[in-house]
Design goal:
heterotetramer; A alpha/beta; B mainly alpha; C mainly alpha; D alpha/beta; B: mainly alpha; ABC transporter involved in vitamin B12 uptake, BtuC; two-stranded antiparallel ribbon; two-stranded antiparallel sheet; C: mainly alpha; 2 domains; 73% helix
Chain lengths: 238, 303, 408, 377
C-alpha cells in the first residue's frame, strides 16, 4: 500500500483534568474514506481537534504526509492540504455566504483562481449561489452543512476531516450530503469521517475505526464492521 | 440661537474626541470581547509621545522650519509607538488569558491601566506638558459664532476614520479575517487565519486610533497629563456600549451622543451634573434597547 | 536544560528589546532637542537584570536543576499540609479567630488601621462576591452601596443623633433599596452592557453625593460623625447609663472584626442555601435556570440587594471610624479595587476572597516605602497574578464554565 | 480548605513584622503628608521638597541640640481621606513629633483627628478650608491663608480696582475650590456685584467649552475661576481665550504655579491671581529659593509654605528644647519672625493670618499688581 497520508501514533490528549484520548493510533491512506464511529463522548471530535492542533497532544505523535505536525499551530495546516468541517458546522453567522467561502480560501492569494473555485462551489451547490449575499446564520441546517463543506473545499484540501455531517439534518438531506461526500472523494480528496450514524458512514467508507471512551476498540474494512453483530447491536440499533 | 449653534459646535467636537477613542475601544472589543481598560492609557501614551516628539523637534529647531512635515512625522511615529505598546501589552497581559475567564482578563486589563498610567508619571513627571499649539490655534468666525480649525479637523478626522475603518473591516481581506476571528476563533484558525496575529493587529489599529485621538486632544486642549486617559476612557467605553459595542458606526454615534448630552446638559441645565446626564441617557437607551443603538441581537450565550 | 533555554530565550530577548524600544523614547528624548541614552539604558538594565534572574530560576526549575532545593521543599510542604490536615478545620478556624482576637494586643496603631481596612474590604469583597461570584453578574459600580451605607449613618447621626448600632439596620436597608433601584433596570442586560450600566450608576451616585449640597454638603463631606458607642450600667450616683464612645482604634478593630465574621458566616450560609443554589444556576445558565422554574427576576434583584446590604454595613462602619465622609472615597477606582480583590482571590471562594483582600490591601502598604513606585507595583502585580493564576489564588470548587465564556 | 487556611494564617502573620519598633537613636522624626501620587502629585511633591529643604537648612545651621539628625517620613495621602488616615496612623507608629501636611482639606481634616488622639502637632502648608482650624483641635496650625480671607480680598479687588458690576463664578467641586467660590459669591452679593452664574465642573474634565460659551453669553465683567489644580486652570484659560471670552479672568492661589504659564502660554497673559504675598527680596526667601531650586528645580506654589511650616516646627522644638506637644505649642504661639513666605505669627486658633495680594501675568511672569492695603502697586 502507498505511504499513509495521516498517521496517529498512540495519541493522548485531555481537556483540563479530563482525559479525552487515551492512546489513539490510526492510519489514513491516500484516496480512501475512513469512518470513525463511536458513542457520544467517545472522543471522536477530540481526535479531529487534536489532529488540527486545537487540542494539544500530550503524548504520542501525529504524522501528516510523513512529517510530524504535533504542536504546529492550527492555522498552518490548511495550506498543507489538511482541512476540517467541524462539528456543528461553525458557519460564521454574521458573514455572508460568499464571505464564508472566501475565508475558506484565506491562505490562498491568487484572486482569479479563488473566484473560479467559488463559481465551482456555486455550481456544486446551486442553493448557495441563490443565498450568496445572505448572512451565514440565516441559512437552514442543510444549507449550512453544504456551506461548511464548500468552505472547506475552497482550501483545496488533500485530506478532509468531517465531523458529524449528518447532525441535526432531515434524513433526505443527510442522504444528499453523503452523496456529496462520496463525490468529493471520487475527485481525489481523502476523507476521515466521524459519524454517529454508523450505518451510513460505514456504507460510504472503505475502512472504519470504532472508538470507545478515548481508545480504538476495533478496526477493519467497513463492510466487515457493518456485518459484525456486536457493532450492529451497539451502533446500529439492532 | 447663536448660543445654541455655538454649543452645538462644542458638542460635536467633544463628541468627535470621544468617538475617536471609542472607535479603538469598540474594535478591540469586537474582536476579543475585552473591556480594555488600558485603552485610555494608550490614548494618554499617544498624547505624551506626541508632546515628546514635538518638543524635541522644537528644541532641535525643525518645527520652525518645517512645521507641517514635523507634525505629520510626529503623528506617524506616535501612532507607531502606541501600536507597538499595545501589541506588547496584548502579548504580555492578555494573550496568556485568551481562554481564561473574562473577569480575569478584566482584572488584568485594570492592572495594566494602573501600571501604564503610573509608568507615564514616573518617566514623564507629574506636571502637565504643553503642546506647541500656536500652529494650530487659529479659527474663523461665521457671524457671532467662532469655529476653531482644530474643531473642524477633529470632526473631519473622525468622519474620515469612520469611513476608513468601515472600508477596512467590511471590504478588505484583513477586515474579513477580523470579523471571522470575532465570531469564532477556533473556526477561523481552522481556515488558516492566525487569530493571534489578527488580535495583535486589532490592538495595534485600536491603539493607533487612540494615539491619534491623544495627539488631537493635546493640540486642542493645549496640554497632556499622565492621568488624562482615565475619564475619557470611561466615557469612550460608555459611548461604545451606547452605540452597540463592537459596532464601528455605533461607537461614532455613541460618542457624538455622549458629547452632545454633556455639552447641552452643561449649557442649559447645570455643569456639575453633565456626567450624570450622559450616564442617564446611556442607561435609558440601554434599558429600552439592551444591545445599544446599532447593536445586533447577538445570541444570548455569546454576549 | 539547553532545550528549555532555547525555548525561553527568544521571547525573553524579544521582550526585553521591546521594552527598551518603549522605554527609551520616554526617557531619552529631551525637549531641548537632544537625545540621551545612558538614563534609559540604566533603568532598562535594572529591569533586565531582575527579569533575567526570574527567567533563569524558571528555566532551572523547569529543567529539574532546582530539584535539590525543590524536592525537600515539596516534602516539607507535604508534611506540613499533612500535619495541618490532621487538625480539624474547626480548630484552624478557632486558631485564626484566636489570632484575630489578640491581634490588637500585639500590634501598633498602624497595623490595626491596616487590619481594619482589611476587615472592611472583606465585607465588601464578600458582598460583591454574591453579585459576581454567585449570581454571575458583573458589577462595576458596587462601591455606590458602600457610599449609601456610609452617608446613611453619617446623615442619621449628624442630623438626628441616632447612634451607630441603631443606624446599622437603616444603612443596610437603604443600601438594599439602592441595590434594587440599580438592579431593576439592569436585569434585562447581560455581560458588558450590565458592566457599563452599573459603572454609570456608580458614577451617578458619586456625582450626586458630590453635588447635592443641601443633603450631603458636597465635596466638603460630613464632619463630626460620632464613633460607635456603648451604654454601660453605671452605679456611681445612683443607677444610670453611661455613654461611652469607642474612639480607641482597637475597639473599632473589634467592631470591624465582628462585622467581618458576621459577613463571612452570612455569605457562607447563603452560599449553601436554596437561594445560593438558585443563584449558581443563574450563573451557569440563565435560560436553563428559568426553564427549571427559578424566578430569575426576583433572584437577581435579591442578589443585588443582598450584596448591597453588606456594603451598606461596611459603609456605616467606615463613616463611624473615619468620623468624616466625603465623596472622594467612593470613586470608580474603588469599585475596581474590590472587583480585583474578588477575582484575584478566586471568585465564589470565601478563603480566596479573604486572601485577595489581604493581597491588595497589604501589598500597597508594603510598597508604601517606595512611594512613587507603589501603584506601579500594584498594577503590575495585578496583571502578573492574573496571568499566572487566572482563576484566582484559591479557586472555588463549585464553579463551572459560565455560559458567557463557553465560546472559547 | 486546610491548606488554604494555613496560607491565610501565614499571610496574616506577615502583617505582624510591620511593627516598627522605634530604635533609641537620637533621630528627630517628623512626618509629612501630601499627595505624592495621583492628580495632585505635583503640589504634593512640592510640599515634601519644601519640607526637606527646611530640614537641610536646619541641619546645615547646626541642627537641633540633643539630636544627631532629623529624618523626614514623607507619606502619600493621594488626596484620599482613607489613605490620609492610614498615613497618619503610620506616622503615629513611627513616633514622629510633628507632621507637616496635608494638602487637600479633605485629607487634613480626618488625618488631624487621628493625630489629635496622640496630641501630635500638625501644621498644614496648603489646606485653606475654614474648618481646618475651626474645630478646636489644640495642636492644629496653618501656615497658609484661609479661603474666607482670600475671597474677601478677591471681591475687594473686583470692586475697588476692576470696578466691575457682574461676575461669573466657576469651581471644580472640591472642598477647597468650592468653599472659596461660595465665599466669593457671598462676598459679591454683600458688595452689590451681580452674580450672573455660578457653575461647576468635575474633577478630570478637560472640555469646558459648554460652560465657557455660557459664561460668554452672560457677558459678565469678571470670570472667577476657582480650581483645585492649576492643570484644570490652565486648560480653562486656554479655552476661554480661544472662545473669545473677554471678561477679566481672576483666579486663586492654586493657579499660582510656573506650569500654569508654561501650559497656557499666551492665553495666560492678563490673567489675575490672588495669592499670599511672598516677599522674594527677603534674605530668608533667597536662602530657601537657592537651596530648593538647586536640588528640586522650579519652586511650586506650596513649597515655600511647607518650608516655613517645617521651619516653625523645628524652631519650636529647638527653642523649647522639648518634643512635648504642649511646649511646642507654647513656643509656636510665641513666634514672631520673618519666614520665607511671610511674617510668621500665629493666632490662638492656629491660623497664621494671610496677606493675599493680586498678581497679574505679564510677559510670562507673575507680577505684583494690587495690594488690599496699598491699592495698585
Amino acid at each position: 500500500m502507498a505511504a499513509p497520508l495521516l498517521e496517529l501514533q498512540d495519541v493522548h490528549a485531555s481537556y483540563g483534568s479530563i482525559k479525552a484520548l487515551k492512546g489513539i493510533s490510526l492510519t489514513v491512506y491516500p484516496g480512501e474514506i475512513v469512518a470513525m464511529i463511536g458513542a457520544n463522548g467517545a472522543g471522536k471530535s477530540t481526535t479531529l481537534m487534536t489532529i488540527c492542533g486545537i487540542v494539544q497532544v500530550q503524548k504520542g505523535d501525529i504524522f501528516y504526509r510523513g512529517t510530524s505536525i504535533k504542536g504546529t499551530p492550527p492555522e498552518t495546516l490548511p495550506p498543507l492540504g489538511l482541512c476540517q468541517v467541524p462539528e456543528g458546522r461553525r458557519i460564521f453567522p454574521r458573514l455572508t455566504v460568499r464571505e464564508n467561502l472566501e475565508l475558506g480560501a484565506f491562505y490562498r492569494r491568487e484572486r482569479t483562481a479563488i473566484d473560479r473555485d467559488i463559481d465551482q462551489a456555486y455550481s456544486f451547490f446551486p442553493i448557495l449561489k441563490e443565498r450568496r449575499n445572505q448572512q451565514g446564520g440565516t441559512l437552514s441546517g442543510g444549507e449550512q452543512q453544504m456551506l461548511a463543506i464548500a468552505r472547506a473545499l475552497m482550501s483545496r484540501p488533500k485530506l478532509l476531516l468531517m465531523d458529524e455531517p449528518s447532525l441535526g439534518l432531515a434524513p433526505k438531506i443527510v442522504q444528499k450530503i453523503f452523496d456529496i461526500i462520496a463525490e468529493i472523494n471520487k475527485e481525489g480528496t481523502t476523507i476521515l469521517l466521524v459519524e454517529q450514524n454508523a450505518n451510513l458512514a460505514l456504507q460510504t467508507a472503505q475502512r472504519g475505526y470504532v472508538l470507545e471512551t478515548g481508545a480504538i476498540s476495533m478496526e477493519d474494512q467497513a463492510a466487515t464492521l457493518l456485518d459484525n453483530p456486536d457493532i450492529r447491536k451497539a451502533y446500529l440499533g439492532e | 440661537m447663536e448660543y445654541f449653534i455655538q454649543q452645538f459646535i462644542n458638542g460635536i467636537t467633544l463628541g468627535g474626541v470621544y468617538a475617536l477613542i471609542a472607535l479603538g475601544y469598540t474594535m478591540v472589543y469586537g474582536v476579543i470581547q475585552l473591556i480594555n481598560f488600558a485603552h485610555g492609557e494608550f490614548f494618554a501614551a499617544g498624547g505624551y509621545m506626541g508632546v515628546i516628539l514635538l518638543a524635541y523637534m522644537t528644541g532641535a529647531g525643525y518645527l520652525e522650519t518645517h512645521p507641517f512635515l514635523c507634525i505629520a512625522g510626529a503623528g506617524v511615529l506616535t501612532m507607531a509607538y502606541t501600536a507597538f505598546l499595545a501589541m506588547g501589552v496584548e502579548r504580555m497581559a492578555y494573550k496568556p488569558l485568551r481562554y481564561a475567564s473574562r473577569l480575569s482578563l478584566l482584572v488584568s486589563a485594570l492592572g495594566m491601566s494602573i501600571f501604564l498610567s503610573n509608568g507615564l508619571m514616573l518617566t514623564q513627571g507629574v506636571f502637565d506638558k504643553p503642546y506647541p499649539s500656536e500652529l494650530t490655534h487659529g479659527g474663523f468666525e461665521i457671524g457671532p459664532i467662532s469655529v476653531g480649525y482644530l474643531q473642524v479637523i477633529i470632526v473631519g478626522m473622525t468622519a474620515v476614520l469612520l469611513v476608513g475603518l468601515n472600508i477596512l473591516v467590511f471590504k478588505t481581506r484583513i477586515g474579513m479575517a477580523m470579523r471571522a476571528t470575532a465570531q469564532d476563533k477556533i473556526m477561523s484558525s481552522l481556515v488558516s487565519i492566525s487569530s493571534n496575529r489578527i488580535i495583535a493587529l486589532t490592538f495595534a489599529i485600536g491603539a493607533g486610533l487612540a494615539a491619534c485621538a491623544g495627539m488631537m486632544t493635546g493640540f486642542y486642549y493645549g496640554s497632556v497629563r499622565y492621568d488624562m486617559g482615565f475619564v475619557p476612557g470611561i466615557k469612550a467605553f460608555a459611548a461604545a456600549v451606547l452605540g452597540g459595542i463592537g459596532n464601528i458606526t455605533g461607537a461614532m454615534l455613541g460618542g457624538v451622543i455622549i458629547g452632545m448630552v454633556e455639552v447641552f446638559g452643561a449649557a442649559y441645565i447645570s455643569g456639575q451634573y453633565k456626567d450624570v446626564f450622559a450616564f442617564i441617557i446611556m442607561i435609558a437607551v440601554l434599558y429600552f434597547k439592551p444591545t445599544g443603538i446599532m447593536g445586533e441581537n447577538v445570541d444570548d450565550t455569546r454576549v | 536544560m539547553i532545550r528549555e533555554c532555547k525555548k525561553v530565550l527568544k521571547p525573553f530577548v524579544l521582550g526585553l528589546l521591546w521594552l527598551l524600544a518603549l522605554l527609551w523614547p520616554l526617557l531619552g528624548i529631551h525637549p531641548d532637542g537632544t537625545l540621551s541614552f545612558a538614563n534609559a539604558f540604566q533603568v532598562w538594565l535594572y529591569i533586565a537584570a531582575v527579569a533575567f534572574v526570574c527567567v533563569f530560576l524558571y528555566v532551572l526549575n523547569k529543567s529539574g536543576n532546582l530539584d535539590f532545593a525543590a524536592r525537600p521543599a515539596a516534602v516539607l510542604h507535604g508534611r506540613v499540609s499533612e500535619a495541618a490536615g490532621r487538625i480539624p478545620a474547626k480548630a484552624w478556624i478557632g486558631l485564626l479567630l484566636g489570632f484575630a482576637l489578640i491581634y490588637p494586643q500585639i500590634t501598633g496603631r498602624y497595623e490595626q488601621d491596616v487590619a481594619i481596612n482589611v476587615l472592611i474590604y472583606i465585607c465588601l469583597g464578600l458582598g460583591l462576591n454574591i453579585v459576581i461570584g454567585l449570581a454571575g453578574m458583573l458589577d462595576l459600580g458596587y462601591i455606590a452601596f458602600y457610599g449609601v451605607g456610609a452617608y446613611s449613618y453619617a446623615l442619621l447621626n449628624t442630623n438626628f443623633g441616632i447612634s451607630f448600632w441603631f443606624s446599622l439596620p437603616f444603612a443596610a436597608v437603604l443600601a438594599a433599596l439602592a441595590g434594587c433601584i440599580i438592579g431593576y433596570p439592569t436585569l434585562r442586560m447581560r455581560g458588558d452592557y450590565l458592566a457599563i450600566v452599573t459603572l454609570g450608576f456608580g458614577e451617578i451616585v458619586r456625582l450626586i453625593l458630590n453635588n447635592w449640597m443641601t443633603l450631603t454638603n458636597g465635596p466638603n463631606g460630613i464632619l463630626g460623625i460620632d464613633p460607635p458607642s456603648f451604654y454601660f450600667l453605671s452605679f456611681d450616683g445612683g443607677l444610670s447609663f453611661e455613654h461611652l464612645y469607642l474612639k480607641k482604634l482597637h475597639y473599632l478593630y473589634y467592631i470591624a472584626l465582628f462585622l467581618a465574621v458576621f459577613t463571612i458566616i452570612a455569605v457562607r450560609r447563603l452560599n449553601f442555601s436554596r437561594i445560593g443554589r438558585a443563584w449558581e444556576s443563574i450563573r451557569e445558565d440563565e435560560t436553563a435556570a428559568e426553564l427549571m422554574g427559578v424566578n430569575t427576576f426576583l433572584l437577581k434583584l435579591l442578589a443585588y440587594a443582598m450584596g448591597a446590604v453588606f456594603a451598606g454595613l461596611a459603609g456605616a462602619f467606615f463613616s463611624a471610624r473615619m468620623r468624616f465622609v466625603s465623596p472622594e472615597s467612593f470613586t470608580f477606582l474603588e469599585s475596581a479595587l474590590v472587583l480585583a480583590m474578588v477575582v484575584l482571590g478566586g471568585m465564589a471562594s470565601i478563603p480566596g476572597i479573604i486572601l485577595g483582600v489581604m493581597a491588595l490591601i497589604v501589598l500597597p502598604e508594603v510598597f508604601r516605602e517606595f512611594e512613587l513606585y507603589r501603584m506601579l507595583a500594584v498594577g503590575g502585580a495585578m496583571t502578573v497574578m492574573m496571568v499566572f493564576k487566572p482563576r484566582g489564588l484559591i479557586p472555588a470548587k463549585r464553579v463551572g464554565t459560565r455560559s458567557e465564556e463557553k465560546e472559547g | 480548605m486546610r491548606k488554604q487556611l494555613l496560607t491565610m494564617l501565614v499571610l496574616g502573620l506577615i502583617l505582624v513584622p510591620f511593627a516598627v519598633s522605634p530604635a533609641a537613636t537620637k533621630t528627630l522624626r517628623i512626618g509629612s503628608m501630601s499627595p505624592l501620587t495621583g492628580p495632585y502629585a505635583a503640589d504634593g511633591n512640592d510640599i515634601k521638597n519644601g519640607t526637606l529643604t527646611a530640614i537641610e537648612i536646619f541641619e546645615e545651621e547646626g541642627g537641633i541640640p540633643g539630636f544627631d539628625e532629623i529624618e523626614l517620613y514623607p507619606q502619600d495621602t493621594a488626596c484620599d481621606p482613607k489613605q490620609a488616615v492610614a498615613a497618619a496612623n503610620k506616622l503615629l507608629n513611627l513616633e514622629v513629633v510633628g507632621v507637616i501636611g496635608a494638602y487637600c482639606s479633605s485629607s487634613t481634616i480626618p488625618a488631624s483627628e487621628t493625630l489629635a488622639e496622640e496630641d501630635i502637632p500638625m501644621i498644614t502648608p496648603a489646606s485653606t478650608n475654614e474648618q481646618v482650624t475651626e474645630r478646636g483641635l489644640p495642636y492644629m496650625f496653618r501656615m497658609c491663608g484661609r479661603d474666607d480671607d482670600q475671597s474677601k480680598v478677591a471681591v475687594q479687588f473686583i470692586k475697588e480696582s476692576l470696578n466691575a458690576d457682574s461676575i461669573f463664578i466657576v469651581d471644580d467641586k472640591t472642598t477647597y475650590s468650592q468653599g472659596l467660590a461660595d465665599g466669593v459669591e457671598k462676598e459679591c452679593e454683600k458688595a452689590g456685584i451681580e452674580v450672573l452664574g455660578h457653575d461647576h465642573v468635575n474633577q478630570g474634565d478637560k472640555d469646558f467649552s459648554a460652560l465657557l460659551t455660557k459664561a460668554k453669553s452672560k457677558g459678565a465683567d469678571v470670570f472667577y475661576m476657582s480650581m483645585q489644580n492649576h492643570a484644570t486652570g490652565s486648560l480653562m484659560t486656554i479655552q476661554a481665550k480661544r472662545l473669545g471670552l473677554d471678561a477679566q479672568i481672576l483666579t486663586q492661589d492654586a493657579n499660582m504655579h510656573p506650569n500654569f504659564i508654561k501650559v497656557a502660554k499666551d492665553a495666560a497673559e492678563g490673567v489675575m491671581v490672588t495669592f499670599g504675598y511672598v516677599d522674594e527680596s527677603t534674605p530668608e526667601y533667597k536662602k530657601y529659593a537657592k537651596k530648593f531650586s538647586a536640588k528640586y528645580g522650579e519652586i511650586g506654589a506650596y513649597g515655600t509654605y511647607a518650608y516655613d511650616a517645617a521651619t516653625v516646627l523645628l524652631k519650636a522644638i529647638k527653642e523649647s528644647g522639648s518634643t512635648d506637644p504642649e511646649d511646642i505649642k507654647a513656643e509656636i504661639m510665641n513666634m514672631n519672625f520673618q519666614g520665607a513666605s511671610k511674617m510668621v505669627k500665629f493666632r490662638p486658633n492656629g491660623d497664621s493670618g494671610s496677606n493675599y495680594i493680586v498678581f497679574v501675568i505679564k510677559d510670562g511672569e507673575y507680577v505684583k499688581y494690587w495690594d488690599p492695603a496699598k491699592g495698585k502697586l
